[in-house]
Each structure stands twice: as C-alpha cells, then as structure tokens.
Design a protein that fits this description.
The structure is a single chain. By secondary structure, this protein is an all-alpha fold. Helix content is 75%, strand content 0%. The protein is built from 17 helices and no strands. The two termini are 13 Å apart.
Length: 408
C-alpha cells in the first residue's frame, strides 16, 4: 500500500491510543493531594504511583513490541487495552496507597503494549523518508492529552478523585471499539510463534545492531531515553513543584502546566512540516544541546536561590520544547534501521525512556527535601548523559543495516 492510500484517520487513531499514557499520568496530578488525604499518607508517597506507572509501562513496552513481532500487532493491542480497562476501573475502588501502586503498575503494562504497537505500526506502513513527519504528527495528537488532562482532572475533582479514573476507563473502552472496527493488521503473526525467551533474543539483536561498524541505533535510543526522562522527572514532581513549592491553586495548575506542553507542541509542529530523513539528525542533535543548556541554567538559578516561578517556568518550557525535535528526529533515525524487528526495536527504544524516567523520577521523590534542587540536578544529569552518548552520532543520513530480508 502506498502512503497516499493509507487512511488519514489511522495516524490520528494511533496518536489517540498512545495518548492513554499521558492521560494516565497527567489527569490525576491535581488530585494527588486529595488522594494523599484519603490514603492517610504524604504527597511524596502518592507520587510513587507515577513512578510505578513509568516502570510498568517500560515493562509493557519491552514485551509488547517483541510479542507483536511474533503474534501480530492487533492481538497485542487487544490484550493491552483489556488489561488497561480492568486495572483502571479497579483503581477507582481501592482503599490504600499500596493497592493503588500495584494496580497502577498493571494499568501501565497494558498502556505500554499500546504505545509500542503504535510506533511499530507506523514503521510497518510508512516509508522511511516519511517516518519523522509521521512520528511528529502522532506526537502532536498525543500532546493534546497533557494539555487538557490536568484541566479535566481539576474539573472532575469535586466529584472525587475516583471519577478521574472512571473517565479514563470510558475513554479506553471507546478506543477498544474503534480499534476493532477501523484498524487493519499491519503485521500478521501466529500464536505458534509466541515465545517469551525469544523476546530477549530479538531485543539483543536490536541492541547489538551495527551501522558502519558502530553501535549507532542503540546510541540513538539511549539519547532519546535520557532526554525523555527529563520530561518524566518533571511530570513525576509537577504536583509538588506547582501545588506545594510555588503554591499554585488546583484550578490554576492546568494553565501553568499547560505552558510546557504548548512549548513542546510548537516545536513538534515544525517537525510535522519540515522534518525529513536529511535533516532529522541535525534537529535531533540541536534539541539535545539546547536541552542541556536549559537544564544547566535551571540548575544554576536554583542553586543560587533565584528560581522563582517566573524563572522556572520559562526555562522548563524551553527544556520540554526541545523534545519536539529530539523525539521525532531521533525516532526517525533509529527506526529506519529496522523493519521486520520494528516491534522489538520500538520496545527497546520506549522501554529505555520509561525505565529511565521511572527510575530517575523515583530517585527525585526519595531525595525530595522541600526544594527544587534534587529534581533539577537529576534533570541536568540526564541531559548531560543524553549528550554524552550521542556526541559523535552522524547528522547526515547513514545506510541501514538490516539483513536482506529485513529491508524495504
């Protein structure tokens, strides 16, 4: 099928499906203090439900993509969305934070299945030269979720924080119906090919893939993972930063939080229109360098005691806006090296991002001392790491390194 024959609604639906992730993370941010009161714990303890989601999502993506290479994308999609719906409904009826933590983990595993099969499906159906723009288009749709999710959460909060999870379950159920009706199978598989042990073989094949004798693909994945973990760290701590540290009201929280999303949407819009296989490497590297500068400035101002909300928010907007170049540009480069292993490659890529984000987000929660310094310091270290591992990756297109049966 030529790319001009692919229904336009398909990329929109993939974006709506991936948006379950940010919706699951951001919609209940204004409700975290209320959940802490109900559970009889501190806000920092409830923040662990964000880290649990990130870690569970990483595990879901690790296995989901590789399984979809074996048994087909849609089968994994059905399993993932079913797990998500059941876990989300259950969260609305929990009585302890420990129960919420466990269910958030399983909710995230289901969400991880969905995220990874969408990325792999885009690689299945679009030519390499269009990948950057297609990933950017999908990301633009995904970004609607963190823009509106906190506002929805604040709107539903008077009905109880449980209503936020009920809304997410309804949204997922609607997506399940549409998934059955309008999404074709982009990679067929068979149940007989299912193998848990093969997941690790497939992922190792991705990790050790060499291009021009160098381990380039995995370096792109690590660079994206570390840079995206900057976003994950911020989201994990956003409730503390704005509602407690800067004393922003729950009704104003969506507006302040939304500024960072708007910054990311603006750069992502540029990537939608202008990103090609020829310039994706340049914008990937430019985004990483800019993120490093922005996080370094944020750390300097925070350490010096000058990190007022008027300084913090603009620097955070710039920090997050860089992901509009890093994500699409890096994904286009990375996924171009794979075809038959697109699901496994997507698993490795997204797992790194969510695992690193979950781990570093949990670290910042543990280091929380009532100031912004631990969070900002870890964000800056992640940006340094992203630039270090990608410092010498080429900005010009490189040849793909697939076996003959895995190119196209």
């Amino acid at each position: 099928m030529r790319s001009d024959e692919i229904p336009r609604y398909l990329i929109v639906f993939f974006g709506a499906l991936v948006a379950l992730g940010p919706l699951s993370m951001d919609a209940y941010l204004p409700a975290i203090p209320a959940m802490a009161v109900d559970f009889g714990v501190s806000v920092v303890v409830v923040n662990h439900t964000l880290s649990a989601y990130l870690i569970g999502n990483a595990i879901g993506q690790l296995f989901g993509g590789a399984f979809s290479d074996q048994i087909g994308r849609k089968r994994i999609g059905y399993i993932g969305i079913s797990i998500y719906i059941v876990a989300t409904l259950a969260i609305a009826f929990v009585g302890t934070v420990e129960q919420a933590l466990a269910l958030r983990f399983f909710q995230a595993v289901g969400g991880g299945f969905l995220t990874v099969i969408c990325m792999a499906s885009v690689r299945d159906i679009y030519p390499v030269d269009e990948l950057g723009r297609r990933f950017a288009t999908m990301m633009m749709i995904v970004l609607i979720a963190p823009l509106v999710a906190p506002a929805l959460g604040a709107l539903l909060l008077p009905l109880g924080w449980q209503s936020i999870f009920l809304l997410k379950a309804v949204y997922a159920l609607l997506l399940l119906v549409l998934y059955v009706l309008i999404v074709p199978e982009t990679r067929k598989g068979r149940w007989g090919a299912f193998s848990v042990t093969s997941v690790f073989t497939q992922c190792v094949d991705v990790i050790v893939r060499r291009v021009d004798g160098r381990l380039l693909p995995i370096r792109y994945a690590f660079g994206m993972g570390l840079s995206i973990s900057v976003l994950m760290i911020f989201v994990t701590n956003a409730s503390f930063v704005y509602l407690e540290h800067f004393d922003v009201t729950p009704t104003m929280f969506p507006a302040v939080f939304g500024l960072t999303v708007l910054g990311l949407m603006s750069t992502n819009l540029y990537s939608m229109r202008r990103l090609t296989s020829g310039n994706s490497g340049f914008w990937f590297r430019a985004g990483l360098r800019t993120q490093l500068v922005a996080t370094a400035l944020m750390l300097a101002f925070t350490a010096a005691g000058f990190a007022s909300i008027w300084v913090f928010v603009p620097l955070m907007v710039v920090t997050m806006a860089t992901l509009g170049f890093i994500g699409p540009g890096g994904s286009a480069r990375y996924m171009s090296f794979f075809r038959e292993l697109a699901g496994s490659a997507s698993s490795v890529n997204t797992t790194l991002g969510f695992a690193l984000g979950g781990l570093l987000g949990a670290v910042t929660s543990e280091l929380n001392d009532g100031t912004l310094l631990p969070m900002v310091a870890v964000m800056a270290l992640a940006a340094i790491g992203a630039n270090f591992v990608t410092w010498s990756v080429p900005t010009s297109p490189v040849k793909r390194a697939e076996p003959a049966s895995d190119t196209g």
